[in-house]
Amino acid sequence: MLKQINNIIKQRRSLFSSGVGIPIQDAFGPNRQDWLKARAPMYGPDQQNLQYEYSEKAADDQTIINILTKDKVKDSILDFWGEGRLYQSPPLLTGFKNSFNLNHQYQLVSNGIQQGYKIPNRIPVKDYDCTDIEKYIDSNTFNTITLMGAPITSKTSEAISRIIRKDTGKVILYDPGHYQKDIIERVLKKINFIEHPLIKLDPQFIEKDMMKPVITYVNKDALKMDAQFSIIAQEYDRAVLLLEKLFDNDYIQDICEILKPYASQEQIFRLGYRLCKGIRGPEIIRQCKFEKSLEDLLLNKDSEFEISLDHGVTNKLSVNGDVANDSYRNAFFHSLDYKESQNSRLRICPQESGNYFYIRILHGAENRLSTAGEVESNDYRTPAFYSSSNSEYSNYSKIRIIPQESGKYFILKLAHGVDNRLSANGNVEKNDYRKAFFHSKEYSDQFNNYYRIKITKK
Question: Which branch of life, at top level (predicted)?
Fold first, then answer.
């Protein structure tokens, strides 16, 4: 008996600490006599009658149970220790219009204008350990389970994890204590439910007078799908937050399944840039085991790279002459025996959150790989390293990097005009240099082997 009273006191502690009074009938726990004498549940516009046959019956009186299944409850909510829709003072709103309210068999409404009435749509349990709850509710039944203003015990957590639908279900908690949050998270993790920090809930779950914060748990596959849709919608910041949540819960394989398909698309840089701004990002990228060139680019922090043609001998993108002054210098592909090899070392610098890149040479003034003149037409343009003070070419220095073959090779494109690809003219089998140029995609047959690039960290 003492244990039961303690459980009752614990159940009401959250409401008490919120300034909501505890009715006299609660002081020594719900009792059968008060419950038998109480008025029938109050239904109306704010409280839907779900026609639940055991709402006004005690658990002790039942012999044959018509169990609730997902086909019967449809979209209804299960509110653990709920008492129906209540308006309280100071402004505090609890409960829902269309919820089944699981509660002690003799508990009455404790607050609001319905105080002292029987609880609407009540599913009875004998005690606060949810004894015999399986007689009333089948496993995998409710799509939404809420818990507000009541303690979370291991028994409650286990009951919730059994009843919630494992595919599309949501468990919504209102202002749980840190210790109680830990209890339910350990249990929910066993069924692969984790917190969804960015879920978009129906307005009925986040009304302004309800308790805050509102914390929601979903199956990790639902969070994973949300991350995938966020990438498709180009909501990269949102996607990264969801990936980090998966990482915090040790679902690294699921993260890799999301990211790996983008290893041959330029979106990988937009994701990688944002990931690496956080402390988890570098480890996530390493765990996904991308091609080394792609991994190096994603983890790029002031690293030096060489860009070479993937054809014949190794020809490195470089610059001729002195680049110490502010004049531009032509870019070209030189062979390994070219003496001024220092000019082949480049920095690849993300711009606009990884949408574009600057390619800079590590010598003299800050020079960016760019192109002269208009690139709207289908003729090629010779690139050069222009100084950053040369604003005339600032629009032509933004480069797009598109991975090929899961990041083993790359295509470099201007972020302007027609689809221009950095390539080399003529035959590069020999050890002489060849001019680099941006050609339009109509040249792709003629220069098919000369625009696939290797990017190597030095």
Answer: Eukaryota
pLDDT at 312: 57
Separation between Cα atoms, residue 333 and residue 223, nearest integer Å: 46
Give a yes or no: residue 300 inside a domain. Answer: no
Tens digit of each residue's pLDDT (9 = 90 or more) over 388-427: 776 666 667 889 999 999 999 998 988 765 678 888 775 5
Q: Report residue 122 as tokens.
A: 């009540």
- Alpha carbon distance 170, 216 (integer Å): 7
State whether 282 and 330 are in the same domain.
Answer: no
* Residue 145 φ/ψ, nearest 5 degrees: -125, 130
Exposure string of 403-440, with b = 16+ CB inside 10 Å and e = fewer, is bbeebbbbbbbbbbbbbbbbbbbeebeeeebbebbbbb
- 181-202 pLDDT, tens per residue? 999 999 999 999 999 999 999 9
How far apart (Å, rounded) are the C-alpha atoms in residues 350 and 114? Answer: 61
Sheet containing 214-219: give its strands across.
Answer: 122-125, 99-104, 77-80, 144-148, 170-174, 214-219, 193-195
Same domain, residue pair 207 and 139: yes
CB 429 within 8 A of CB 281: no
Domain count, the chain: 3
Query: Are 210 and 254 members of one domain?
Result: no
| Same domain? 208 vs 67 | yes
> Which of 175, 196, 222 lies at the terminal end of a domain, its last residue?
222
The tokens of 382 are what? Answer: 């010779």
Q: Is residue 78 part of a domain?
A: yes
The token pair that represents 213 in the structure block? 């914060």
- Is 377 inside any structural domain? yes
**What residue numbers bound the domain in which 250 lies?**
234-289
> Looking at residue 206, which CATH number applies to its domain?
3.40.50
Is the C-alpha dihedral spanning 287, 246, 158, 52 positive or negative?
A: negative
Question: Is 369 part of any domain?
Answer: yes
| Cβ neighbours of residue 165 closer than 8 Å, sequence gap 6 or more | 70, 140, 141, 142, 143
Do 36 and 174 reside in the same domain of the chain?
Answer: yes
Q: Which residues of the chain have pLDDT under 70?
A: 1-29, 62-64, 89-91, 311-313, 320-328, 336-343, 363-365, 372-380, 390-395, 416-418, 426-433, 441-449
Six-digit token string for 138: 């089948």
Give me the residues paired with residue 264 across strands: none
Cα(384)–Cα(367) distance, integer angstroms: 9
Chain position carrying tokens 């993108």: 317
Query: The tokens of 233 are what?
Result: 């919608």
